[in-house]
Amino acid sequence: MKAYITLIGFSLMAFTAPAFAGDPRSGGSHNEFEGPVGLQLYSFREYFENDVEGTLDMVQDLGFKEVELAGTYGMTPEAFRRALVSRGLEPVSAHYGYDQWRDDPEAVVREAKILGLKYAGCAWIPDHDPFTEERCREVAAVFNKAGAVAAREGIQFFYHNHGYEFRPYGDGTLFDLLMELTDPELVALEMDLLWTVFPGQDPVALLEKYGSRWQLLHLKDLRKGVEGNLSGGTDTRNDVALGTGQVDFPAVLATARKIGVKHYFIEDESPTVREQIPHSLKYLARVSW
Hints:
Elements: E1 37-40, H1 45-50, H2 52-61, E2 66-69, H3 77-85, E3 90-96, H4 98-103, H5 105-115, E4 119-122, H6 133-152, E5 156-160, E6 168-169, E7 172-173, H7 174-181, E8 187-192, H8 194-197, H9 203-210, E9 214-219, E10 221-222, E11 239-240, H10 249-259, E12 263-266, H11 273-286
Parallel strand pairs: 1-2, 1-12, 2-3, 3-4, 4-5, 5-8, 8-9, 9-12
Antiparallel strand pairs: 6-7, 10-11
Helix pairs in contact: 3-5, 6-7, 9-10
């Protein structure tokens, strides 16, 4: 059943799939985005530095029900989970550092269990400039071990692409090699749309190529006119409200539904995140294909 969002200033009522009050859609259809839409809390990293509880209140006020974590901002995992749950926020997944997964995956998984996560993953590989075949093989071994440790506790490990993995290799890219070297049962994927488009990849083609390995999706848009590269970095001002940039969301969302993506998270790293998120939610409420 759909709940409804009412845009009053920047406050929105809770939802499991985005739709606006008065929207003629009822119950969704095959050519409409149904969500659910969560938030990667890293979007509000600067707010969390000053006021953790108040920032979680803001996330609640925006209407999110599912969240993805990137740290607990000085709180213990137990306390942070209580703070989330008390606001009706479900911690679905989290990002942890590559070094943590390499050096002590058991400790990562223990924290993930305390937080009640279904997914725990890695979003950044250090020493990737340039990302080489040798580095790719090292990373694959770390990921397979991390995935096995997580799986024993009922948690799915995943990797979130960041753009530098798409250096040419053989008939494809080093990302393809990483997929070949990792166990698909142990290493799932989270596509970041900005970090797929920025290095010149086609997100629809990549979703189709690796199908059900893509279980999570970062909804993110890249400013029009920005030319990308394989660095894995760009000015945060190039992260724009959904539907205003280079990503073909109708095509992406239709393909994501077809292959069975399970969770969608808005991640907005821009300095105007507080203003942009309501516009992104409004776009998702009306997008169709």
